Amino acid sequence: MSVDQRPDRYERPLSRHLCGRNIFWQKSCPQGPKADGTCGGAVSCSPVKQGGGYKCTRSKSAGGPCSQGPLQDGGCAKNRPPCVPKLRIRSHRKRLSLLALIVALGMIGAFSNTSEHINPSISMLDAGHLSDIHTGFTQDEGCASCHTNHNDSPFDWVKAAFSKNDMSSECLDCHSFNEPELAPHNFSFTSFTPETDKTQCVSCHSEHKGKKANLNVVTQSTCSNCHKVKFDNFVDDHPEFPPKYPSGTPDSIKFNHNQHINDYFVEAKWQGKKSVDKEFSLFASKNCTACHEVETAARKVKAKPYAQICGNCHQSQITSREFKIIAAESFTPVSALLLGISEDDEDDEDALDEHLEFLQILAENPDEAMLDFADELTIAEELPMLVKGLNSILVKKAAENWLNEDEFIENDDMNIKQYGWVAGGDDDGEQTLRYRAVEHADPVILSWIELFLNETKLTQMKENIEPEIIERVRDYLLDPQEGPGACAKCHQPGLVDRIKSTEGISQATWNYRGQVERHFSKYSHGIHIKFLGPKKNCQFCHQLDSDSDYEAYFDQETRDADDFLSNFRSISKVKCAECHQPEKARDDCVICHNYHLNPGYKEKVMVKKE
Amino acid sequence: MNRDNFIIFFISSLLLFCYLAIWFYADYVKSNLGDPSVVTGYSLFVVILLLFAFNLRKRLSFVPLLAAKYWTIFHIAAGTTGLLIYWLHTGSIWPQGLYEQILGLLFYMVSFSGIVGVLFQRLYPKRLNETGSEIIYERIPDVIAEIREKNEALILLCTSETEKNTLARHYIETLDWFFLQPRYFFNHLWGGRKGTSWIEHHFTLVRRYLSQSETDYLDELKSYAVKKNQIDFHYAAQSILKYWLFVHIPLSLSMFTFVLWHLLIVNIYAI
Fold first, then answer.
1. How far apart are CA A211 and CA A129, in angstroms?
2. Which terminus of chain A is less hemmed in, N or C, by CB atoms within 10 Å?
3. Both B191 and B109 in a single domain?
4. Chain-wide mean pLDDT for chain A?
């Protein structure tokens, strides 16, 4: 370019200022601004002393020494008005950058107050709004609820920055799980060793994702962190359900669905009986809801109360199976127990003498006699329930008659009949004192059975009585065919399990235990019934298996749960896969499986602060 | 493949490899129940430090640390990688929480201004080179003043030689506006030709009223106008190449301040 760019002029790119004349698009002076930012071009040169006078030092590029020469005082003769030098772009940029830095630091300083009075949403400590569910619990303590360093001094903050935070322990301050709480699935696995023995809550759950964030959303990839088997969808990747799913273990009540639905409810042989409610049977043969509470169906679909279902046909069996306590001329299991006589002694002369003596005592003072026996058997505490409603006059009168070798015949004039207690000739023509169950779950029968299932009591009894004698009473009580009240006819599985169990009363004895607990899976009948609609009834999943030998397991001397066969065919995963597949219904892990075991809250959450 | 293309390829491949390595490692950490955001966060911090090293390199121009153009290539590639790691780190486009949103906003603004700067650097240096002239930005006022002095000297000479003032009057009334300072700033940036059109129009307009002797002076004056127009383009293009940094650098500093704050807070509160 031919325009003169003044190549002789030295540029000072690092100087902070430019000649102020440039602002008005005028030529800058050769000297340029001084280092302090003031004008350096008010004079053309700085004359130097030479001999007795001064010499002009104007540069060659500026035209060389001027004709006027320096003034007498050594000043330059070529003066002009000074300019106001302007900052270079670089300097402006520096200033702006500094301003930006100050603004950023100012914002951090101004809005980083940890006071709980400061609105967290305008705080420079706000990492995002808490989920609604945690917002309420942090109202009192604010951030310090979970972040213990929040209210620390700046010095402690610096220390905290170089130490590890244990966020999981903060979570466990409020949340409780099965012990060990931080173990995978809050469970001590024994069948295998997990890859890690300690997990962190934040591995799956993260907070500060907004008010509406769902902390429980866990993707399949999260599960696959440990469960290395590839799982893309339920249809292809989920393993088949175990055999006999979901009814692979016997319940505590024996109920043969097959026999009831296909035989008892429909066959004339049974329907012809007076005690049978035919209308109910007909309905129950076609509708599961006749016996099952669908309205409250959750994981378990509970059976309706006894009185509404079983009682329609079985009530007479309960009231007709009598509990023989004492016989006039023989030993009952109970009288043998009271006298401490074993089965082998029954024909013994001495034993018969003891029996007569026993009747004598009863005839003289039955109340005292019962107390003495109770003391001897260490069951004084239980006695009132065991003989609930028994009138001692009835015992006395019956014993007196039997001692005189007379038959005892109750009549209304005696006015001694109480509750279910009866004395006199029974169905076998034998003179006995016996108890006849008044209702289902009769308290007297129940007390006798409970007493003989109570290992502690039995141990105490065994100190005075031979174990075989005690076993005999228990066998009598638990006999499905002859047992009093016919309790064991249906409740035998639960009762037998109770005997075998080392955990005692924690096992379900009388009530439906339901299916075995599956801690890591969840299922709701209710929602499935709702979605499947009325056209798909229970048989859609629960199909009766008419070939299944349900009774076989119960007939075994020594039962092995593995031999149990339910009345239903196993449910295959194909059934679930009809709906649980992409585009139809969710098929991710957490739709059916739980991670946590026994999730709950600790006292801190439940107790309101004073 | 020439050396420059090879270096571009090498740097881009290296950073792509680094990004993939970070991605896979974060995934590995996640699959081992660790916190992948620690991996991605510290990786992003390292990238940001490397991006700031570019500014350091400019300050240490006397140190032989590769040519500036390679640093520019690295800066651009690292900036792009940083943006990808940022998304990997946050797992979303827009973060939660005030300071993280400010940090996110600053990060996006710095990235956007960086992308705009890259576009400017791809466009204007090439167009400046096409003008065939070079001029130092700070000397533009001097050069314009010099052209104006030469014009005025030429007009005086014309008036005295031809004893006519038509050209002088036209200069004072019309052409002087053009020579006073740079004109058509934005039009030059868009690549417009308003300056050229203005020159053609006003020099053609006056030519019919001039004698043959005056026309020679007009032609010389026009050559100065054409040069002035080129300088105007230099001024506009170099200004935009300098002023976009007024956005990029201060925002980067603010962002870095918030990055350090974020680093401090997460170490105190979470990890």
1. 6
2. C
3. no
4. 85
What residues make up the domain containing A29?
Answer: 17-86
Which residues 175-204 of B are in CB contact (within 8 Å) with A?
A: 180-182
Q: Are B144 and B181 in contact (CB under 8 A)?
A: yes
Report which residue type is found at A235. Answer: V
The domain tally of chain A equals: 2
pLDDT per position as a tens digit, A139-151? 778 888 888 888 8
Task: Out of A506, A524, A553, pick the residue that ends a domain.
Answer: A506
Tell me the C-alpha to C-alpha distance, in Å, between residue A66 and each of A28, A152, A470, B2.
19, 73, 140, 56
Q: Are residues B115 and B198 in the same domain?
A: no
- Per DSSP bridges, beta strands A421-425 and A600-601 are unpaired
| Tens-place pLDDT, residues A192-236 | 777 778 888 888 888 888 888 888 878 777 888 788 787 888 999
B125 and B144 share one domain: no
Interface contact B245, partner A, CB < 8 A = yes
The CA–CA distances, whole Å, from A473 to A188, A470, A495, B92 equal 42, 5, 14, 73
Please say if the pLDDT value at position A501 is more than 80: no
pLDDT at position A3 over 70: no
- Please answer whether residues A495 and A513 qualify as being in contact, where contact means their C-beta atoms are separated by less than 8 angstroms: no
Q: What are B190-238's pLDDT values in tens digits?
A: 999 999 999 999 999 999 999 999 999 999 999 999 999 999 999 999 9
Predicted local confidence at residue A531, as pLDDT:
85
CA-closest candidate to residue A523, choices A545, A542, A550: A542
Type and span of the H or E element at B30:
helix B3-31
Q: Do A3 and B31 touch (CB under 8 A)?
A: no
Q: What pLDDT sits at residue B107?
A: 96
Are B231 and A99 an interchain contact pair (Cβ–Cβ within 8 Å)? no
Chosen domain end from A506, A538, A571? A506
Q: Does B133 touch chain A (CB under 8 A)?
A: yes
For the record, the structure tokens of A335 come out as 């009288």
Chains A & B: contacts with CB separation below 8 Å:
152
Q: Do A3 and B264 count as a contact with CB atoms less than 8 A apart?
A: no
Whether residue B254 and residue A100 make contact (CB cut-off 8 A), yes or no, is: yes
DSSP annotation of B268 reads H
B249-262: average pLDDT: 95
> Regarding beta strands A86-87 and A17-18, do their DSSP bridges make them parallel or antiparallel, or are they unpaired?
antiparallel
| Distance (Å, whole) CA A312 – CA A366 | 38
Residue A520 covered by a domain: no
Q: What is the three-class DSSP state of A609?
A: coil
pLDDT digits (tens, 9 = 90+) for A264-298: 999 988 888 888 888 999 999 989 999 998 888 88
CA gap A359, A532 in Å, rounded: 67
User: Please, how many CA atoms are within 13 Å of residue B173, restricted to the half-sphere of its CB?
Assistant: 9
Closest by Cβ to B96, choosing from A97, A127, A160? A127
A567-596 per-position pLDDT tens digit: 999 999 999 999 999 888 888 888 899 899
Give the separation between CA A28 and CA A33, rounded to whole angstroms. 10
Query: What residue numbers bound the domain in which B150 lies?
Result: 137-241
Q: Are residues B126 and B154 in the same domain?
A: no
Of B77, B46, B75, B83, nearest to B58 by C-alpha is B75
**Where does the pLDDT of residue A375 fall: very low under 50, low under 70, confident under 90, or very high at 90 and above?**
confident
Residues of A in contact with B34 (CB under 8 A): 203
Same domain, B108 and B179: no
> Rounded to an integer, what distance in angstroms lies between the CA atom of residue B128 and that of residue B38?
45
pLDDT on residue A1:
41
SS3 call for A459: helix
Q: Which two tokens stand for residue B212?
A: 């043959």
Contact A127 B264 (CB under 8 A): no
Name the packing angle between helices A443-453 and A467-477 (round to 10°).
140
The verdict on a CB contact (< 8 Å) between A100 and B253 is yes
Number of folded domains in chain B?
A: 2
